[in-house]
Write a structure and sequence with these properties.
The chain has 16 helices and ten strands. It has a five-stranded mixed sheet. The chain has a three-stranded antiparallel sheet with strand order 4-10-9. A hairpin with a 4-residue loop joins strand 1 and strand 2. Helix 6 crosses helix 16.
């Protein structure tokens, strides 16, 4: 199975009770429906996606640790079954990205993850702090003198990618293409897609994959101090450590995962902080509150709202039997507001004592390797922004629209007043 696979059919259930208000691709008013589900039908079947939705914290956590009965193989399957024309484009374009990271199980996942973890860890990320602060300062300098801006377009969109490029050795000039490819991949994997979108997306995925193949080939001839070069050094020509195609697949995955979620998470955090502006003012007055505010943003307005699993055998969750082969959607957005674990969960509380208990970054064997980098980036960005633009406010009359994807909560814009 490659990294983009057509959706497999799953046996379902005709009922549609507490989940009637669940709208997987539209996120503006999702929390009320999720709260209703937690109270009355914590496990329900969604007809639109063909997934069993898991809404309570304890059930979500249990599934993430149940590797005997639950598989991660469907994590990156396309939301809409891929048309044969799109599959042919991928095949003819020699798209061979493998399912070896978030969508992989067992010994192979452990082997590849152990190699990646030697390069993606707190120690490595901490060494980037001065470079990240420099990039943030440059981005804020570009905002100086402006009265208003779209915070997504002018700050949070490209900056996380530029941070990631420090690790990957990707030139800044390639930012536009990499962001474009990442957007196309989001549509292919996590959004309802038309025939035209699939064919267009497949062509871009071939370009994206070829870019990664060429990067790895170049580093084999001209090693640098970057991620691909260091992976090759760890491999040392030994396929039992990691094959060349697996290594390229890791690069392909990191290029995507390392910045798209941070862009959305940072945008969500700014919106939450400015909606109840006393929170923003508190951070301006006391920057020591910022690390916990970052964790609360992950909990309250996480960019990753759902994650996927598949039942290997019949399982019973929350009193509901899910058949073997049944597709499961873990609602992080709901679990992070579970009243059993978070007091007054609908409140954005930057002083919340257990904010870091959130599940947005996953848990267990598949916990996000890039979580420490995302935390560091958000901390630095909020430190510098509160210092430079303490008067930041949301523009009046705006209506926040999110990308139509059932995995990420990604605002399309965030208009603000800078002065």
């Amino acid at each position: 199975m490659n990294d983009i696979s057509p959706v497999k059919s799953t046996s379902g259930c005709p009922f549609h009770g507490a989940g009637a208000g669940f709208t997987p691709y539209y996120h503006e008013d999702m929390f009320e429906a999720l709260a209703e589900a937690r109270r009355n039908e914590p496990v329900f079947y969604d007809q639109d996606t063909g997934y069993w939705i898991i809404s309570r914290y304890d059930d979500v956590l249990s599934i993430m640790h149940d590797h005997e009965r639950i598989s991660a193989v469907n994590t990156s399957e396309s939301a809409t079954p891929l048309h044969q024309d799109a599959l042919d484009i991928l095949k003819n374009g020699k798209f061979t990205a493998e399912a070896i990271q978030s969508n992989c199980d067992g010994p192979r996942h452990a082997r590849v993850r152990n190699v990646s973890a030697q390069l993606l860890n707190i120690r490595t990320f901490a060494q980037l702090e001065s470079d990240i602060r420099r990039l943030v300062t440059e981005a804020l300098d570009a905002l100086h003198g402006k009265e208003r801006a779209d915070l997504l377009a002018h700050f949070t969109y490209e900056l996380p990618a530029q941070v990631l490029f420090l690790i990957l050795g990707i030139p800044k000039a390639d930012t536009h293409n990499v962001k474009k490819w990442a957007g196309k991949r989001t549509i292919m994997n996590f959004s309802p897609s038309t025939y035209e979108q699939q064919v267009d997306g497949a062509r871009h995925m071939v370009d994206y994959w070829r870019y990664c193949v060429d990067m790895v080939a170049d580093r084999m001839k001209n090693p640098k101090d970057d991620f691909a070069s260091n992976l090759l050094k760890l491999r040392n020509g030994d396929d039992s450590v990691i094959t060349l195609n697996e290594l390229t697949s890791v690069v392909y995955g990191v290029v995507f995962a390392g910045h798209e979620t941070t862009t959305s998470q940072l945008t969500n955090a700014f919106r939450a902080l400015l909606t109840e502006r006393e929170n923003w003012e508190a951070l301006c007055a006391d920057p020591s509150l910022i690390p916990n505010a970052v964790e609360e943003a992950f909990r309250y307005c996480g960019a990753v709202i759902n994650w996927r699993r598949r039942a290997k055998t019949e399982v019973e969750i929350g009193g509901v039997k899910i058949p073997a082969g049944g597709n499961i959607m873990l609602s992080f957005a709901s679990a992070n507001r579970d009243e059993k674990h978070f007091e007054n969960p609908e409140k954005f509380d930057i002083r919340r004592k257990n904010a870091r208990k959130h599940l947005t970054m996953g848990n267990g064997l598949h916990v996000c390797l890039g979580a420490p980098l995302a935390r560091l980036e958000m901390k630095i960005m909020l430190e510098e922004f509160t210092r430079r633009f303490p008067g930041l406010r949301l523009s009046e009359g705006q209506k926040i629209d999110h990308a139509h994807t059932y995995v990420f909560r990604a605002p399309r814009s965030l208009p603000v007043e800078l002065q």
